[in-house]
Specification:
The complex is a heterodimer of chains A (162) and B (300).
Chain A: E1 3-5, E2 7-14, E3 17-24, H1 29-36, E4 55-58, E5 61-64, E6 77-79, H2 92-99, H3 109-122, H4 128-134, H5 146-161
Parallel strand pairs in A: 2-6
Antiparallel strand pairs in A: 2-3, 4-5, 4-6
Helix pairs in contact in A: 2-5
Chain B: E1 6-9, H1 13-23, E2 27-30, H2 36-41, E3 49-52, E4 61-63, E5 70-73, H3 78-86, H4 92-99, H5 104-109, H6 112-118, H7 125-131, E6 135-140, E7 143-148, H8 149-152, E8 153-155, E9 158-159, E10 166-172, E11 179-186, E12 194-202, E13 209-217, E14 224-225, H9 227-230, H10 242-257, H11 268-299
Parallel strand pairs in B: 1-3, 2-3
Antiparallel strand pairs in B: 4-5, 5-10, 6-7, 6-10, 8-9, 11-12, 12-13, 13-14
Helix pairs in contact in B: 3-4, 10-11
The chains are: A alpha+beta (162), B alpha+beta (300).
Chain lengths: 162, 300
């Protein structure tokens, strides 16, 4: 039987917290995260899946929250930039970005860090070519990318030696 | 927030087809959403119903009983295809093509079927599938049919899909013996400015070209097989000075005869130049792979 709906109940985990909400099926994940959950670390810019600033991890995989319907998150584990630090201790990727000055205006940084997390889970020791290739879908107009590359290398070293 | 629509979750492919036939243009097939949602944001499409086909068992990659034909379910994501082909040496061209699609986020969400059904000319999969003479399987309220990819992708954003149709699979026929395929893409924007797929197959001597296929995509309204260029290479000895001369002729024929449209990616002249260069390069890669395949077969 066809099930036709305008609203859907979603039960998911966001940064480890249980969420149980009803959402309109037209709602985009980026709006659900920013407006309903008040997690404004996830940014919106190009709105067409090119720039990467809205990157969040859904079951560990990076997606563009700007082009992902929120109801699809039912049953998923979502991670946003707010979920990385433990208390006042930054995640090693965040710390590496800070130490390498890999952020200037900061707008791309949440997406860049989440994409990096997904890369390092897939490949604990990526070379620079792999890093460039993986992060090519995350745009930064400030840094010229070199500090970001260095930060990813540093983060991978620290995570491996922890 | 997007404009108002409702999600329809059918219980089977047949129900999806019936719903689509009943609602016509008011309903759109929804899978990854990477093309559809963008068109809806731009108000180019405003369906009242999105028919979600992700939960109908249309995903997955399988070999036919003979073990050589490959069936790719329409809702298989680019990332799944990328991972599948990267672990199989004979499928390097598929791995290269899929790895080049957009970015990792789009590949996680977007499906092979959605990509083809959208008919976006600046896309990669249709070009490689054209070089392989692949087919698409379409289910409608009355049954199933298969169409060659060339008879499916008709024009920019235009396909052979009718109301009530759901693409259910892509079927890739077995590769010829002693053959190699290459896919090269180039562009400075998110989508390809050009994609070229070539296949070279060799005679049992492992040297003489028995068959060549050249498909060019993204520069025109749809991927195009360039048969006058293909025939330049048949019978050519691929290990001698004959080869570079024939490749030069084929690349030049492709550049002359290919359908090209000027757009934001470049002028017609520029694109014809790209066709010549990339057909040349792709033929060299395909030749090297055909030689490697022939050597592997001879060693068995």
């Amino acid at each position: 039987m066809n099930r036709v709906s305008e609203r859907r109940r979603i039960r998911c985990k966001v940064n480890g917290h249980d969420i149980d909400r009803e959402v309109p099926v037209t709602q985009l994940l980026v709006d659900f995260i920013r407006e309903d959950l008040n997690l404004t670390g996830t940014k919106r810019s190009c709105d067409v899946q090119v720039c990467g600033v809205c990157t969040v991890l859904v079951d560990g995989r990076p997606v563009s929250a700007c082009t992902y319907l929120a109801f699809e998150a039912d049953g998923a584990e979502i991670q946003t930039i707010e979920g990385l630090a433990s208390g006042s201790e930054l995640h090693p990727i965040q710390q590496a970005f800070l130490d390498e000055n890999a952020t200037q205006c900061g707008y791309c940084t949440p997406g860049m860090i989440l994409a990096t997390k997904s890369l390092l889970e897939d490949d604990a020791q990526p070379n620079r070519e792999r890093i460039r290739d993986y992060l090519k879908g995350n745009l930064c107009r400030c840094t010229g990318y070199q500090p970001i590359l260095s930060a990813v290398v540093l983060a991978s070293e620290r995570i491996r030696h922890d | 927030m997007l404009k108002s629509f409702r999600i329809c979750e059918p219980g089977s492919v047949e129900e999806a087809c019936e719903f689509l036939a009943q609602h016509g243009l008011a309903a759109a097939v929804y899978a990854g959403g990477t093309e559809l949602l963008l068109a809806m944001k731009e108000d180019l499409l405003a369906p009242e119903y999105l028919v979600d086909v992700k939960h109908l068992g249309l995903g997955g990659i399988s070999f036919s009983s003979s073990g050589r034909e490959v069936r790719i379910g329409a809702t298989t994501t680019h990332r799944e295809l990328e991972a599948w082909s990267a672990s199989r040496s004979q499928w390097e061209a598929l791995a290269e093509m899929e790895h080049g699609v957009a970015n990792v986020r789009v590949r996680n969400q977007g499906t092979i079927g959605g990509n083809l059904c959208f008919g976006e000319p600046h896309a990669d999969p249709g070009t490689l599938l054209s070089a392989w003479d692949a087919s698409v399987e379409i289910t409608d309220p009355h049954g199933r049919r298969q169409l060659p990819i060339g008879g499916f992708l008709l024009d920019e954003f235009a396909t052979a899909l009718a109301e009530g149709d759901v693409m259910t699979a892509v079927v890739i026929p077995p590769a010829p013996a002693r053959s190699g395929t290459a896919y090269l893409r180039f562009g400075f924007l998110e989508r390809p400015t050009i994609g070229v797929a070539t296949q070279v197959a060799l005679d049992p001597d492992g040297e003489t070209v028995s068959q060549t296929r050249i498909a060019v995509g993204a520069v025109g309204p749809r991927p195009e097989r360039i048969e006058p260029a293909e025939s330049e290479l048949v019978g050519v000895h691929s290990g001698t000075g004959e080869w570079p001369m024939a490749v030069a002729r084929a690349a030049s024929r492709a550049a002359e005869t290919c359908t090209v449209a000027a757009d934001a990616h470049g002028s017609e002249d520029y694109k014809r130049h790209l066709v010549e260069v990339f057909v040349w390069r792709a033929l060299e890669v395909a030749r090297a792979r055909a030689h490697a395949d022939a050597a592997r077969n001879a060693g068995q």
